[in-house]
Design brief:
Layout lengths: L6 H23 L4 H34 L7 H12 L11
Length: about 100
């Protein structure tokens, strides 16, 4: 005849199993779980890419600002900006639209 577990041993086994399942679920789905970590790493990669794009844009704007400063004046850039912003053209130019 097979030997049966006592009630206290059965309760202990069931509680241990439930705790193990809870901790396994928390390790995967919890606020510090594997899935949350993957999500955070993905968000971090997106933010780093956006930061790099913004750095390129800032560098470009700093270059334009320096080229139009009092210390260094780029006449070609000044001419281009005046044409674009003010809509200026020379008398000898033809505009095609």
């Amino acid at each position: 005849m097979p030997q049966r577990l006592s009630i206290s041993a059965t309760i202990f086994f069931v509680l241990t199993l439930c705790l193990g399942l809870y901790f396994a679920f928390a390790a995967v789905q919890g606020p510090s779980g594997i899935l949350r970590r993957i999500q955070i790493e993905s968000e971090t990669a997106e933010i780093v890419a956006e930061r790099d794009e913004l750095r390129v844009e800032v560098d470009r704007m700093q270059n334009l600002t320096r080229r139009l400063s009092d210390d260094f004046l780029d006449l070609d850039l000044l001419d281009e900006r005046a044409r674009e912003v003010l809509g200026l053209v020379r008398a000898d130019e033809i505009i095609l639209r």
